[in-house]
């Protein structure tokens, strides 16, 4: 098996997720942030390219309005940024839409992206789903991402239930799901992370439901 050529995609680690209406609820914000910062340091030490992504909306928008406190990157992330890394701002959920990220990755012969940051239930999910069509394998770190409580006309779901469910969904088709510690071991060993597929997940799901 060939050694994966990884890049770390750090998605929207902005103050909106710590102090605004989109506060991350699960896993705990401080824990996921610590793991995100850890992945960045490991990536830098192992020459893994890093992309720092932030979301931007027009001035006057209720969240992520450019220039506001909520739009700013978390200060602990700011301290780690290397000018050699790619920094982009996006307007859509996926980090690929209108940003040039895919082209930057291809120029560096990247074939695998590792997704950390926020939110599991929006930008991380959209990025993982789009990566396959663009020719990238995806990894997502369950303890370096995070979800929020949701409620609307369709129902309600806790952040923990949402996060855990999405990890199962992602691992069934879109991305290899792992912990930060497992990813660090994989990076240092130069190996791929194991991933399930839809058929195996469906069979195991049917067997689990029957028991």
Shape: globular
Number of domains: 1
> In this structure, how is the largest beta sheet organized?
6 strands, parallel
The CATH architecture can be given as 3-Layer(aba) Sandwich
Question: Approximately how much beta-strand content do the residues carry?
Answer: 15-25%
How does this model look, in words?
The chain is of the alpha/beta class. It has a single domain, classed as Isochorismatase-like (Rossmann fold), CATH 3.40.50.850. It has 8 helices and 8 strands. The strands form 2 sheets. The protein has a 6-stranded parallel beta sheet with strand order 3-2-1-4-5-8, sandwiched between helices. Strands 6-7 form a two-stranded antiparallel sheet. Helix 2 packs parallel to helix 7 (180-189) and helix 5 (120-133) packs parallel to helix 6 (159-174). The longest helix is centred in the N-terminal third of the chain and has 17 residues, at 29-45. The protein starts with 5 loop residues before the first strand and ends with a helix.
Helix-strand blueprint:
Blueprint: E1 6-11, H1 16-19, H2 29-45, E2 50-55, H3 75-78, E3 86-90, H4 101-107, E4 112-118, H5 120-133, E5 137-146, E6 150-152, E7 155-157, H6 159-174, E8 176-178, H7 180-189, H8 198-210
Parallel strand pairs: 1-2, 1-4, 2-3, 4-5, 5-8
Antiparallel strand pairs: 6-7
Helix pairs in contact: 2-7, 5-6
Keywords:
single chain; 211 residues; alpha/beta; Rossmann fold; 6-stranded parallel β-sheet; two-stranded antiparallel sheet; 8 helices; 8 strands; 40% helix
């Amino acid at each position: 098996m060939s050694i994966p050529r990884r890049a770390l995609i750090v998605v929207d680690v902005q103050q909106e997720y710590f102090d605004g209406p989109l506060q991350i609820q699960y896993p705990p914000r401080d824990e996921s942030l610590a793991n995100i910062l850890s992945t960045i340091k490991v990536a830098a030490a192992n020459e893994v390219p890093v992309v720092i992504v932030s979301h931007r909306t027009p001035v006057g928008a209720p969240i992520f309005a450019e220039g506001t406190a909520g739009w700013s990157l978390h200060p602990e992330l700011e301290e780690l940024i290397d000018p050699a890394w790619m920094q982009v701002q996006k307007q859509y959920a996926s980090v690929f839409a209108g940003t040039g990220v895919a082209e930057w990755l291809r120029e560096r012969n990247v074939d695998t992206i590792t997704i950390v940051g926020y939110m599991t239930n929006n930008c991380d999910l959209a990025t993982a789903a789009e990566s396959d069509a663009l020719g990238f394998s995806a990894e997502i770190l369950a303890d370096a991402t995070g979800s929020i409580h949701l409620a609307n006309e369709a129902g309600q779901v806790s952040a923990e239930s949402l996060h855990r469910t999405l990890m199962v969904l992602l691992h069934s088709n879109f991305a290899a799901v792992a912990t930060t510690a497992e990813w660090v071991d994989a990076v240092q060993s130069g190996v791929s992370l194991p991933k399930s597929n839809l058929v195996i997940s469906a069979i195991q799901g049917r067997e689990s439901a029957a028991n």
